[in-house]
Amino acid sequence: MWNTSRIPLGKRSARSEAISPDTEIFELLFWGDGLRLLIGLLRISCFCGTVISEACWLLLLFAFGDEPVDLSIMNALTATNRNFKLAARLLGLDSKLEKSLLIPFREIKVECTIPKDDGSLASYVGFRVQHDNSRGPMKGGIRYHPEVDPDEVNALAQLMTWKTAVANIPYGGAKGGIGCSPGDLSVSELERLTRVFTQKIHDLIGANTDVPAPDMGTNPQTMAWILDEYSKFHGYSPAVVTGKPIDIGGSLGREAATGRGVLFGTEALLAEHGKSIAGQRFVIQGFGNVGSWAAQLISEQGGKIVAISDITGALKNSKGLDIPRLIKHSTEHRGIKGFDGGDYLDPEDLLAEDCDVLIPAALGGVIHRENANDIKAKFIIEAANHPTDPEADEILSKKGVTILPDIFANSGGVTVSYFEWVQNIQGFMWDEEKVNNELKTYMNKGFKAMKEMCKTHQCDLRMGAFTLGVNRVARATVLRGWEA
Ligand SMILES: NC(=O)C1=CN([C@@H]2O[C@H](COP(=O)(O)OP(=O)(O)OC[C@H]3O[C@@H](n4cnc5c(N)ncnc54)[C@H](OP(=O)(O)O)[C@@H]3O)[C@@H](O)[C@H]2O)C=CC1
Ligand SMILES: O=C(O)CCC(=O)C(=O)O
């Protein structure tokens, strides 16, 4: 068993101080990947022959460990693993513990076959990846989207583990998804699909095991169906899901929570730079739950939303878009297209639009090496999960752009999910003011703790958040008794 004194309690461990970075690289490459090192060196001598490329190859091997190096734009899992490994090395984590923290607890894949409204049968693949439960029940959303794939769900589950630890709430991490286009399914088809998915995973979720919530393409109604289906097997259990409708145990403030957390996180970051929301120009990608609430709350504080996009298109207005009117239009027309209060903008150009603060609030992987140089914002607030890949991180850092990382920036949603779960267990409903005040306290504490890690490890905010989350999970793992 590992001695807990070997796990750094918010500081660089004695082990990492005793071993120079060079020794760690040598140890990793020679003992962990000796063959790979040999092949790598041979390839370099044959094809490159320069000292610089040799160093680059070694660095890539170091960064990706035992994964094949893929020089195309990184997928979500490769990128997330890379960030985790960098954090593990900053913390000086034991290499076996590091490996064990990366491996998911359980990966579930199910076929969900449903009758469509026209009488035909359709089959969809559903996933639930349960990454880690050392700090408590696993927690994370369920996504309905055509691009849902096992690697992405895996990455998102892992991010949930670090996110709940950064937020310091007593959960582990999980994520689920079904590969489907929710917009192309009728309400009754969506209900059937959700119920079949729940039937297939009901034994593996639960208030003390794994607690799903909404993500892209799902909403409180989806959670209500899961609750109902789950309760047929296990008795009435409101705490099995969060993000429910208020009438059946949802929390006041949960719907706005991710957007409100984005507001609080942005306020904290801007304050550090002597700025406030008022007067800053914002560009937001995505106008669903997170994007629309972030836009509304930011504009209420005097922030100017100068451009916005959703799947139907993009709009700009240098004087600031009228957000309440845009929300009304989007609800009535199922998208922002056709809104008369802004000018047409090519969605491809949105991220490069001139602004102070850019908020990606839709899909992952949207900021990469091909477009990072075009970004004009000074601050990026990652409301979406993993919107920025590691190559873009590096480019943006050189440009002086400050990124508030996803595992802190969008943690308001899961934090209020925690408050919902607590209310369900207590059987007592909080008022909205209490929810919002508690959320602000958690976000401010998370920001302070992340900054402390930046100071300790001389790193950027992403590594500050990763070292904070990974360190807390590693401590819990070791405290519970981890056998090598
Ligand atoms: N909901 C939550 O509590 C949390 C969500 N997140 C993350 O925030 C992000 C958004 O989630 P959420 O708001 O819940 O999802 P929603 O499904 O409510 O909204 C997603 C929005 O993004 C739009 N969109 C989809 N593809 C594109 C595109 N290529 N360009 C521009 N817009 C696009 C969608 O348009 P359309 O609807 O027309 O397809 C929709 O407006 C995700 O990354 C999610 O993981 C993170 C933490 C918590
Ligand atoms: O509210 C939750 O439990 C999870 C939200 C989520 O999926 C996320 O933070 O990415």
Automatic annotation (TrEMBL):
Active site positions: K175 (proton donor)
CC annotations in GO: mitochondrion
Keywords: NAD, Nucleotide-binding, Oxidoreductase
Catalytic reaction list: L-glutamate + NAD(+) + H2O = 2-oxoglutarate + NH4(+) + NADH + H(+); L-glutamate + NADP(+) + H2O = 2-oxoglutarate + NH4(+) + NADPH + H(+)
CDD domains linked to this entry: NAD_bind_1_Glu_DH
GO BP, one annotated term: L-glutamate catabolic process
MF (Gene Ontology): glutamate dehydrogenase (NAD+) activity; nucleotide binding
Residue ranges occupied by any Glutamate/phenylalanine/leucine/valine/L-tryptophan dehydrogenase C-terminal domain in the UniProt entry: 251-481
Keyword Thylakoid: no
Gene3D superfamilies in the record: Leucine Dehydrogenase, chain A, domain 1, NAD(P)-binding Rossmann-like Domain
Site positions for Important for catalysis: D215
Binding of NAD(+), residues: T258, N289
Residues annotated for substrate binding in this entry: K139, K163, S417
Family: Belongs to the Glu/Leu/Phe/Val dehydrogenases family.
Record protein name field: Glutamate dehydrogenase
Species of the source: Aristolochia fimbriata
